[in-house]
């Protein structure tokens, strides 16, 4: 039986990067080239990637996530005095070849067997997501892969979350949104989704007006939460 907060859910929509797809693999892939700079470079890259997406949305100056990711990487590399075009190409390419967290395939199979629709809703551009989903081997377990490019804004703008409502023809309260990112949890909850936060790192909750309806440490716990 589903948790009472999720009893009305008809579709389960996932963030991609850091939720279904393991960003930790990116760091491990470049330790040979970055050495003791690996963690700070990767952390700065991800932080700037998100900051640029939010700032571009606020400024009304949209660029797709591939360009934003490249700009963020250029900033991170320059910050550490690194100028290596081959390394840059390698690092960008990693966004096209991620792996899924180990529990993801079985989790998606259980949700679909229970009759729930499944989708990704991501900041990623359509080509990035197509490549990433194929690399992770989860494409045949998803009913849709939705990109912010359809509205030209980034999460947490409400128009992005509305893409899932429009696609499935349901109300916000009939969607379980799942993310590993605290800011995305707050944004999706503000929109009106039922939200499950996959808090693998045990991070504190963001100090924002809205938060999750449930907190998980693994996506493997999601089917039980939804009664699947």
TrEMBL record:
It holds the Pfam family Hydrolase. InterPro entries: 2-HAD, HAD-like_sf, HAD-SF_hydro_IA, HAD_sf, PGP-like_dom2, S-2-haloacid_dehalogenase. It catalyses: an (S)-2-haloacid + H2O = a (2R)-2-hydroxycarboxylate + a halide anion + H(+). SUPFAM superfamilies: HAD-like (SSF56784). It comes from the Bacteria. GO terms for molecular function: (S)-2-haloacid dehalogenase activity. Keywords: Hydrolase. Its EC number is 3.8.1.2. Gene3D superfamilies: HAD superfamily/HAD-like (3.40.50.1000), Putative phosphatase, domain 2 (1.10.150.240). Catalyzes the hydrolytic dehalogenation of small (S)-2-haloalkanoic acids to yield the corresponding (R)-2-hydroxyalkanoic acids. Belongs to the HAD-like hydrolase superfamily. S-2-haloalkanoic acid dehalogenase family. This is (S)-2-haloacid dehalogenase. It comes from Magnetospirillum fulvum MGU-K5.
